[in-house]
Amino acid sequence: MEQLKAADIKVIHKCTSVRHSLKAEKIGCDAVSVDGFECGGHPGEDDIPNGILLPRAAEELKIPFVASGGMANARSLVSALAFGADGVNMGTRFIATKEAPVHDNVKQRLVEASELETSLVMRPLRNTERVLNNSAVDKIKEIESNHRGDDPNSLLEEIRPLVAGSERVLRDGGALWVIGSYHNILRLGTSVQNLGFWILNDIIWHKTNPMPNFRGTRFTNAHETLLWCTTSRKAKYNFNYQNLKELNEGKQMRSDWHIPICAGKERLRESNNQRSHPTQKPEALLYRILLASSQKGDLILDPFLGSGTTAVMAKKLQRNFIGFEQDQNYIKLAKKRLKQTKVLEDEVVTMTKSRKDLPKVPFGELVEQGIIPPGAVLTDKKEKFKATVAIDGSLKIKDISGSIHQVGAKVQGLPSCNGWDFWHVKDKSSSKLLDNIRGDYRNKKIN
Q1: pLDDT given for residue 284 in this prediction
Q2: What count of Cα atoms within 13 Å lies in the side-chain half-sphere of residue 364?
């Protein structure tokens, strides 16, 4: 308080009770905002409405005070003055004004709301909030009503993702990507898990052309870490495994990505050749992220849009996008890039469905249909093992028998094996992978 007073700063403290108001007066506050039980946000724990609280504050306080909570128009001001206040504090009312930088849907929701459309949440934690009703609030109230026990921490862990807003923004099974360097990624990982998200992978972005450490005092920072997360451990998330495998020349995509930082024509620069944005991400990085965890038409949100790389790649790949950025210069950069970005054609953007999304075709069906008849011989790629197909679709090789997966695992001495990717059907001139045979059969069946 001494520092604030020395800088000639006026201090107005929010209080939800007379005793708190008197304490604020005692420590030197210039004024207080007295918030009755009606207020949005934190109304305190005493549940005293303004009709009682304001006259009591007028009786006790010597410093000026304004009335807060339910104040919306001239009638509110007149009543507050009659109760002894020196003015009013309006919050929610200003959100609904034309000048407020808030979406029109939110403004309309506030205007249309009746006096019955707010709820009190987090009361068991003695951190009560008055909030506008929505689906997240309904879930919080349900959790609170069903909560058993005296441990407030367990309740807090249950409702934390809801009160933090993540449940409202990210659909169940949606993807959350976080990127950072050693400065922040460990703290970010902790926060992500504390909010109830489930980390699916940590991915190393290996920068093939990192900026050198000119001082020579530390290792060159040649990588950043990405955390790929979803809403919970049990969530059914989207992972375009097969498409990433195609991108990686038929091999499983690993969690170490070798991608150069922005350079050459991709790096945005000012007229004096200075970088337009200090941490502009390469388009290839966002390309891979979106390809991995989204589908055409999905909505992508980037709360730190910067120079707009996320939006650019989302537009190019036919994803919808929303971006937030407070720096006007970066906004101009992003808009310019978006204007120059061309949307790829449907036939280019439409991806091959992953195996799990395709109709199931058991190996026995191929045997029944005569695609791979009983008695056919299956081999591995190097023709080291040869197995015979039985009439029930099982494989037999010497004293080993079982499914295409079981036999493939046993002959290799492995705990498991994907038989579709291991076994081949060999004819006189060529050898064809079992999975490709299944794919041809499935396509004919679908079409």
Answers
A1: 96
A2: 6
CA angle at 123 for the pair 155 and 158, rounded to the nearest 5°? 20
Domain spanning 2-112, CATH architecture: Alpha-Beta Barrel (3.20)
Q: Quote the Cα angle for 401-404-406, to 5°.
A: 60
Give the number of other Cβ atoms within 10 Å of residue 404's Cβ.
23
CA 41 – CA 204 distance, rounded (Å): 41
Domain extent listing, the chain: 2-112, 118-166, 238-357, 359-446
Cα separation, 103 vs 27, whole angstroms: 40
How confident is the model over 339-372, as pLDDT tens digits? 999 999 988 887 766 666 678 899 999 999 999 9
pLDDT tens, residue by residue, 200-222: 999 999 999 998 888 888 899 99
CATH level 3 topology of 238-357: Rossmann fold (3.40.50)
| Single-letter amino acid, residue 358 | L
Residues 107-145 as b/e (b if ≥16 CB within 10 A, e otherwise) read: eeebeeeeeeebeebbeeeeebbbbeeeebbebbbeebe
Output the pTM of the full model.
0.58
Give which of 248, 253, 210 is closest to 228, Cα–Cα.
Answer: 253
Distance CA 447, CA 187 (A): 51
